[in-house]
Amino acid sequence: MKLLAVFLLYASIREAIAVTTNREQRRDTAAFDPSRYDSSDIIYRDVAVIGGGSTGTYGAIKLRDMGKSVVLVEKEQVLGGHENTYIDPTTGTPIDFGVQAYWNIPVVTDFFARFNISIGPYGFSGYSTTFADFTTGQTIPNFTLNYNLLTAYNDQLNKYPDLSWSWNLPSPIPDDLLMPFGQFIEKYSLQDSAYALWTITGGVTNPFLLDQVTVNVMKWLDHAYMDETINGNAVTTTKHDNGELYVKALAELGSDALLSSTVTAAQRPEEGGVSLVVSTPKGDKLIVASKLLITIPLLVGNMKPFDVDDTEENLFKKFHYSCYYVGLVNNTGFPGGYRYLNAAANDTYNIPHFPGLYFINPTIEKGIYLYWYGSLTDLTQEEIESDVATVIHRLSNSTQEPNFLAFASHTPFKLEVTADDITNGFYDQLYALQGHRDTWYTGAAMISHNAGVLWNFTQALLPRIVA
Ligand SMILES: Cc1cc2nc3c(=O)[nH]c(=O)nc-3n(C[C@H](O)[C@H](O)[C@H](O)COP(=O)(O)OP(=O)(O)OC[C@H]3O[C@@H](n4cnc5c(N)ncnc54)[C@H](O)[C@@H]3O)c2cc1C
């Protein structure tokens, strides 16, 4: 009798689940029914681009140049992603506080020229560096930073020319690429350059630099970045307004760019294009596109609305990320003429641990300082600004209250996978997704964190997408 009751209960629960699932499926399917939308809310395009950061903007503009119709979906109110520009309200001076410089290669110079934006050499000078342990405020005497030492690291990097442009790894993958970076530093006697390397690894926080898989470091401190740092082969806009590129791109895209918008549901059959329901400030829109180009961080949570299948989800769930924040502050009490670099007095190679600051640098506008902050876990703006204020008090010995002018979260940053996943062919499997269910991928998770490299990768991908 008891058994029968349990069976009946089990059957009724199953039936209830089936009814709910069917109801949800019906509702989901209905969301893609064009007859439910006003015709002005249905957008038919050749390609839907998701994410309007560096690569999404580049991809959308270039696809239009190729004669394709596009729609771009960006969750923020502006295009640009990791690019942040603050306009000083008093002087009108632009201050870049996210992306600073671009690799001086044709794909970059051509893109700026396309928008008639003047660029010139990147560099900062005119101030001295104070090295201080930000946890105590104590300056570290007789400490130097010599970027010439980076050539020893660069010599090692040069053994792997393919890494510049791809995730094509030698087969079998050399142990050197898979060992923790701290071990790699010891093996190749790079101890003298370890601190200099840390200063340019902004945003690589999880895991700690010395515990990073060496190839993951090499995909950040890559040939592009080394060419920029060692040879000075970097450019920036002459107005110090990297945001201009994205303002002009947005003007050109016009209503083809849906800002403050996200995809809430997707249908991606094996072939025959994609349908996306997009939540926008003007209500839901239905996008019907032949192809989908995804440029956003490929984390499971971010990709959930895209109807991911098991193959996709099993790859995306392997990614972990770093936490990275930037901001501008004035009223610091600093005397001027100095930048402050964090250097741990008692830690290996003087590399500080996180959460904490990389540096506090003067900007083009007198009295306004730029800071970059790394953390192992997600932090709030309030938590970060409180910590930055404490450090400023320590360094300045002033009672002035710092005034925070701008803040941007760049979390999730630097998506990467473990040495085991790399050994097991993660990137071959990820790249095999290209074209799967009419969906294509570019962006930092796929290739690199250098805009020049990303644009180059995207440029090569576009003909395959439209083929
Ligand atoms: C502080 C900082 C400084 C940097 N400096 C440089 C530099 O000087 N030079 C350089 O070459 N590189 C620099 N980088 C590296 C930078 O990551 C790359 O240059 C490049 O911006 C990465 O482009 P992306 O398109 O992959 O990502 P992003 O530019 O981040 O673009 C992704 C876009 O997708 C949007 N998005 C995310 N999720 C969704 C969603 N679900 N739906 C819709 N939209 C979504 C985001 O809002 C964002 O706009 C810097 C990075 C940071 C954080």
TrEMBL record:
InterPro entries associated with the record: FAD/NAD-bd_sf
Pfam families in alphabetical order: NAD_binding_8 (PF13450)
Domain of life: Eukaryota
Keywords recorded for this protein, A-Z: Signal
Annotated signal sequence range: 1-18
Protein name as it appears in the record: Amine oxidase domain-containing protein
